Amino acid sequence: MNLYYQIELTARKIRHYGQSILNDHNLNLTIEQWLVLKTVLENEGISQIKIGEILIKDKPTISRMVKHLVNSGYIEKRNDNVDLRQFSIYLTKKGKQLLDKLLPVIETIRLQGLNNLTEKEKNNLNDTLLKIQNNLIL
């Protein structure tokens, strides 16, 4: 039994399922872009660098996603008050409206994935995944 393979396969299925649901709702957004929006929602004024650290994504990937979200009008970049070379990222009104529409869809995706798991199974799975993550801290 290859647990790493099962973890990776599960992660891929989650992303694939989630993307198909987003597409079904005609949301012009990838799962990865959703994660950027969610990160900005939870951390208004965050920098691109910090988003990359939180999502464990490289700078070019985050830059492309942020650029797409800015061009779509969902987020805006403002000069950082402390370091003018940096930008702080904020949700726009359009971005907040998208999230209002998106959050129930995301909740449906999450519920489907955890369907038929008992609370004890969910807690055990969470504990196990956290242990694996902690084993891999650099």
Question: Could you please describe the fold and organization of this structure?
Answer:
This protein is mainly α. The chain has one domain (3-135): Arc Repressor Mutant, subunit A. Helix content is 68%, strand content 7%. The chain is built from six helices and two strands; from the N terminus they run ααααββαα. Strands 1-2 form a two-stranded antiparallel sheet. Strand 1 and strand 2 form a beta hairpin.
Secondary structure topology:
Layout: H1 3-24, H2 31-42, H3 48-55, H4 59-71, E1 75-79, E2 87-91, H5 93-114, H6 119-135
Antiparallel strand pairs: 1-2
Descriptors:
single chain, 138 residues, Arc Repressor Mutant, subunit A, two-stranded antiparallel ribbon, 68% helix, 7% strand
Question: How do you describe this structure in short?
Answer:
The protein has 138 residues and is mainly alpha-helical. Helices cover 68% and strands 7% of the residues. Helix 2 crosses helix 4 and helix 3 packs across helix 4.
Shape, per Cα inertia axes = globular
* Major β-sheet profile: 2 strands, antiparallel
- CATH third-level topology: Arc Repressor Mutant, subunit A
Counting DSSP E segments of at least 2 residues, the number of strands comes to 2
Work out the radius of gyration.
17 Å
CATH superfamily caption: Winged helix-like DNA-binding domain superfamily/Winged helix DNA-binding domain
Q: Share of helix among residues?
A: 55-70%
Structural class based on helices, strands and sheet pairing: mainly alpha
Number of domains: 1
